[in-house]
Amino acid sequence: MERALTSILALGLGITIGRELRRWISAPGTEEDPLSVVSDSARVIAAWRALEAEEPEPLVYDEFAVALAGPSALASARACAQPFTGTAGPGKPHRARKLCLSNVTARVWWFDEQIRAALSSGTNAPRQVVVLGSGMDTRPWRCSDFPPGLLWFEVDLPAMVSAKGLALDALGAQKGTGPGEGARKHPLHVASWRALTADLSGPDWVQALAACGFDPGQPTLWIVEGLFMYLEPRDGTGLLHTMQGHSAPGSRLVTHNVTQELVDGVQDGSITEYPPYSQDLVRTWHYGFPAPLEPALAELGWRVTTKASRAQIARSIFGAGSDEELEGCVEFDARLGCAMDRYSVFVAATVADVKPRT
Length: 358
Hints:
By secondary structure, this protein is α/β, with parallel strands linked by helices. The protein contains 14 helices and seven strands. A seven-stranded mixed β-sheet has the order 3-2-1-4-5-7-6, sandwiched between helices.
């Protein structure tokens, strides 16, 4: 039971600002442990990043992950991890591993790759990044290859922003350019980092963002990781519309979500299990991306440039061409077209030249 619960937390919850999820997994903070306001899922996901950093050739290296996870979450993740038994081969990247590729690492790696691609997309590439529902994301410190002059904005609920700020201070992370910040142990790899509190279901978050230095007249990279499924459909489409409406030419979006097929199936009872996710959790998912996805996002002003499933991501990482080649390499079901593969989608998009219809 403990193993199953840990897997559900690690793979199913994500770091989101969804209200229902927050009520379900959050605990009140204490002075002794400021990170106690951070969801258990945030700790466990940090633990999986910490395990990945121990690999001979880590796909994700996060110096903060051990401290952000804490000993309990780290021990739980280690107990759940599966040993790598895949067959190494010449020219196959990242095949020599100690542990199987985790669901969490596959997602984080894909986002890292798409973020780097967006920021190097030409003369009009974005130089400001907005992360909605940022949680305990550490990319401004762990990604040293970002281009110069990058402005990084994060938006989340007050408890998460406060807890993260305290954690960064305890770790010796640089947060700004003020007195003493340059002497911090862990420097920023972006020109500026700002974290602000806002409720994305309300109308005022863009104005709050602008007050912190966001310029809607410049290209923006929007990052939405582990959020959309917890929103009501009208709030999900509304968020996409709002981002588009404040995006200059050259702006891009990197996101992922479950599909509407899964949401509908859970609601009408035709899908009774979606392992390793719990039914209680899946029932809190309201908004899935429709199929076909491209015309739906086009209606909201976004042109899909990349679409991937988790199985396709695993194939990219391992250079695999078949299900058999991934045996012993991943801890999740990586068969192309299986339920786990159909029910989630990873998307990169550019802002369209025309405004969406209202």
